[in-house]
Here is the input.
Amino acid sequence: MSDVLTHPTTRDEDWRYSDAEYLASTSSDELLHWTEWTVAPGEVKSEYVTLLSGPQARGTVQRTRVHVGKGGRLEVFATLAGGQYQRYELDVTLEEGAHFEFGGVTLGGDVKLQEFVTRVVHAEPNATSNQTVRAVQWGKATGNFLGRIEVVRDAQKTDAAQNFRALLLEKGASANAKPELEIFADDVKCAHGAAIGALDEQALFYLASRGLPPVEARKLMVRAFIADAFVEISDDAMRDQMLEGALAELDQGAL
Amino acid sequence: MLEITNLHAEIDGKKILKGLTLSVGAGEVHAIMGPNGAGKSTLAYVLGGRPGYEITEGSVTFAGQDLLAMDPHERAAAGFFLGFQYPVEIPGVSNVQFLREALNAQRKQRGEEPLTGGEFLKLAKEKAGLLKLDMDMLKRPVNVGFSGGEKKRNEMVQMGILDPKFAVLDETDSGLDIDALRVVGEGINAIMRDPAKGVLLITHYQRLLDYVQPDVVHVLAGGRIVKTGGPELALELEEQGYEAVA
Ligand SMILES: Nc1ncnc2c1ncn2[C@@H]1O[C@H](COP(=O)(O)OP(=O)(O)OP(=O)(O)O)[C@@H](O)[C@H]1O
Ligand SMILES: [Mg+2]
Here is the structure.
């Protein structure tokens, strides 16, 4: 559960892939702090989060709890591309007919550890959620997605989807997916998928055969890969900004 | 303009090309026919520079350069084009976007100015029109959800846009309906019939050769050219089969 009341360690399920050294060196106040948002009934809240590789703390843990009122819509799009440890956590409760849209990208090399942790509670009927996470890692870096979906007893007609794909550009990189479904209603659609792979060599050769140099070809493929996480951004300029911002963090050496 | 000499190539330890020699001059169209598994696509891939093949013997010279020493994208910039038997689907990457980048990368390597977005679109429209491929298809992700025939026509639109000096077309005719076959045949002529260009057409059927008439026909079997003749050889093969002729 996201609600560890004591100082978290990697023995806690939700922190199992996290950075033990960072947890040990950081105060409980910082790790257990939650930012609270509410989305009023029928309202839309869109948030764009980018934690890039500029000068910053060794680790970042950001946790946000959101209550979405009836028919409301929460959209969060996030890129984690920096830190040695970066964790972005969302705990979302949906009232009747509310929607939660999440698109997340982790992107990093070295020994970076970047993770999204979400908990979505479908507390009333007809709420929907859609989460798409794409991880691009190289070096000895790791990208994780821990996604928990809870559907309470009366939350009929829930439609919850979760999709995670990781692209490992080098052999030492890794990714972990941990979907968890806890469903107490019977008329519910829950879809989740996870896949971990490398760039498609056939596609790279096809692009090269048309004249694209290898680095350009790989960049184009990575762009297409992470674009999945941002397709639901309705503002074209914002979508481009998120995409280009993430791509700029790609290490040429890894391509 | 393309000289293949005693080419030996293997993949995963399996010898596929076993001493293949072939020469295509400028202004010529050569056809290669041959039974399934003979090594036709292997030859096409080796010429295109696909990773995974080991060249154990022989040489390939293209317009005076050592083709095998170049990376695939350098071969493209030098004017070499490969039309795939099975064009690859690339989700999320749009045809026009990658083709413009590819063409401009080629131009850069040749020391030419890049095309602007407008100039490129005009060119793409013209070539799509030539091959009767809907412009909307060119905006879609590369080959994703294209029918077999649409993929082949897309290959030819790409060839039209990139305007190569030499094209190896691997079964570009398979999967095409009767009308599309004519459109593609005429397209190949329009793009590649030129005293300064050359074509190697890999095919199983005479039909395409009715439109794109070859100067020379080769039979490839067991990893080598076992017979070479004029256009009449293709007709003979169609009537009598490989066993009798080659
Ligand atoms: N990775 C591989 N490992 C081992 N053998 C391979 C590999 N790839 C291809 N081959 C073999 O190489 C041989 C030649 O294949 P190729 O695709 O070149 O034939 P082709 O002449 O193009 O046939 P078709 O007319 O059916 O297209 C075949 O026997 C094939 O099974
Ligand atoms: Mg073949």
Remarks:
- The first strand of chain B starts at residue 2 and ends at 11.
